[in-house]
């Protein structure tokens, strides 16, 4: 078996022919099967991101079971969250070679296997391997295709579609917190993980729903996008033009390579047709040769595109605003996951367990997070609103809440701050849209893989760092202050770099005018 062009999600043909024909809107772009893709992505977010947001329940069980320090035990949750995102660039290579559907199905099996094997853990270090690494890699193999497929199927309502699909994180955090708490109480944490592993097999069904677009559909989408891009880019326009002018990814060598590959496949087909009178064994061998040739062509194309995106002349790293976006991602995500992992312990310290049992603070974040994603997505899709500005305002609100949270020692105060954290963190639904505006649809898989990799590094070190600070000071206050300050540094990078880019663009235009 090999991945077809449509499954890879990239167009290797000549787009020049498309412009000469009238474009008929495809019913699956912004409608039709596109909404099944949103449903699939929504379920993926429930089963993966929602489960990870509920790991505070299991973290408390592991502390009691293995009697290890908070810093060491927090590494289990951090490894799972971090590896899910860190493997993004490598999953981009899998998508280029195998396609989103195949990648997601394999990931679903790995994720379920990680949960089930973790039920037999004898120590924390065993969980590092089974839950942190195995389940984490499986989660990453499903998560990235779920985001990329929504980006491929939507043009006009991208922010809304991403917002609806990523609300699964909020629904999942609410549902999985209640489910894991019930399962741990009734059956113990080991059986709870075994049952959760069986539930995670539904990720394979979600992967099967990721039906690839045909090359014709993708070409039509690219043409429509190129016509409207100048009006939509706004503050990011210069950066987008930079990456596009540099981001041809070697079309001429690619065309030559495609012609050579076509000659190879054509010669195999010619020999196959001419040799029909030969023995059946020879025909079988020719079919195997043809399949291997097609697989080789697909793998070479996928790897070439992946390599060019990261290391070639058209590297994504030549886009300075995109690099600033990566630096922001390195600091941002830990500020969101630290409350989910350590809030149950904070509640216990403040003697607020009775109120929290009635309505958990993590559930407040999760529920409001749902509305935040949808509302911010709808606002960003308005023609008079800049997605980039909405994204920045939400970040400012979130970092303010992170710095304020340690000052709240009553349930009402914590609930209000958690609600604001939930709403402002709805900017996660805008991350794929901002990334796509920076690099274009064609490079979304590789670019978003880099962004979630940076988020993964942040998630990997954030909760253990907070646990380590607690072990030293017996307080979580400094953990939130330091995380908030680092987050602010990332936001400053997002503000400064576009301004520098604009200034350089104006200076360049002035020099050209003088010449």
UniProtKB/TrEMBL annotation:
Membrane-crossing residue ranges in chain numbering: 33-55, 75-95, 102-120, 126-148, 160-180, 192-210, 321-341, 361-379, 386-405, 411-434, 446-466, 478-496
Superkingdom, taxonomy of origin: Eukaryota
Lineage start: Eukaryota, Metazoa, Chordata, Craniata, Vertebrata
Domain Major facilitator superfamily (MFS) profile: 37-502
Coiled-coil region: none
Membrane topology: Multi-pass membrane protein
One GO cellular component, as annotated: membrane
Protein name per the record: MOT14 protein
Record key words, sorted: Membrane, Transmembrane, Transmembrane helix
Organism: Notiomystis cincta
Main location: membrane
Location of this chain's protein in the cell: Membrane
GO MF annotation terms: monocarboxylic acid transmembrane transporter activity
Stored InterPro entries: MFS, MFS_dom, MFS_trans_sf, Proton-linked_MCT
């Amino acid at each position: 078996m090999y991945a077809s062009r449509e499954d890879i999600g990239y167009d290797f043909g000549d787009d020049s022919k498309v412009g000469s024909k009238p474009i008929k809107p495809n019913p699956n772009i912004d409608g039709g099967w596109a909404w099944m893709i949103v449903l699939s992505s929504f379920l993926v977010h429930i089963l993966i991101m929602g489960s990870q947001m509920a790991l505070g329940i299991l973290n408390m069980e592991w502390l009691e079971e293995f009697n290890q320090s908070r810093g060491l035990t927090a590494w289990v949750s951090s490894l799972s969250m971090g590896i899910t995102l860190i493997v993004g660039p490598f999953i981009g290579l899998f998508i280029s070679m195998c396609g989103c559907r195949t990648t997601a199905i394999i990931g679903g099996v790995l994720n379920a296997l990680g949960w089930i094997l973790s039920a037999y853990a004898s120590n924390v270090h065993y969980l590092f391997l089974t839950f942190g690494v195995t389940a984490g890699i499986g989660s990453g193999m499903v998560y990235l295709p779920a985001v990329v497929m929504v980006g491929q199927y939507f043009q006009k309502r991208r922010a809304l579609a991403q917002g609806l699909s990523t609300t699964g994180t909020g629904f999942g955090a609410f549902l999985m917190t209640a489910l894991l708490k019930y399962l741990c109480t009734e059956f113990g944490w080991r059986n709870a993980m075994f049952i959760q592993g069986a539930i995670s097999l539904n990720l394979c069904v979600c992967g099967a729903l990721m039906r690839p677009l045909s090359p014709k559909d993708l070409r039509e989408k690219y043409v429509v996008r190129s016509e409207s891009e100048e009006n939509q880019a706004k503050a990011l326009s210069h950066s987008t033009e930079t990456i596009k002018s540099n981001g041809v990814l070697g079309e001429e060598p690619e065309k030559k390579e495609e012609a050579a590959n076509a000659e190879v496949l054509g010669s195999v087909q010619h020999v196959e047709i001419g040799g029909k009178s030969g023995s059946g064994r020879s025909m079988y061998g020719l079919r195997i040769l043809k399949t291997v040739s097609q697989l080789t062509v697909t793998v070479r194309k996928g790897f070439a595109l992946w390599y060019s995106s990261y290391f070639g002349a058209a590297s994504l790293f030549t886009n300075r605003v995109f690099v600033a976006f990566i630096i922001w991602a390195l600091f941002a995500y830990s500020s969101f996951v630290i409350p989910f992992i350590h809030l149950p312990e904070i509640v216990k310290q403040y003697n607020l367990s009775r109120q929290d049992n009635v309505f958990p603070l993590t559930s407040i974040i999760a529920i409001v997070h749902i509305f935040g994603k949808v509302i911010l997505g709808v606002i960003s899709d308005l023609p008079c609103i800049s997605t980039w500005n909405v994204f920045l305002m939400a970040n400012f609100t979130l970092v303010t809440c992170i710095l304020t949270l340690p000052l709240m020692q009553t349930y009402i105060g914590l609930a209000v701050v958690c609600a604001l954290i939930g709403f402002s963190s709805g900017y996660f639904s805008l991350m794929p849209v901002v990334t796509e505006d920076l690099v274009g649809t064609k490079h979304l898989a590789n670019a978003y893989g880099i962004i979630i990799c940076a988020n993964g590094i942040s998630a990997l070190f954030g909760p253990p760092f907070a646990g380590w600070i607690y072990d030293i000071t017996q307080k979580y206050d400094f953990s939130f202050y330091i995380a908030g300050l680092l987050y602010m540094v990332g936001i400053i990078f997002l503000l400064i770099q576009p301004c520098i880019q604009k200034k350089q663009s104006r200076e360049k235009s002035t020099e050209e005018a003088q010449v």
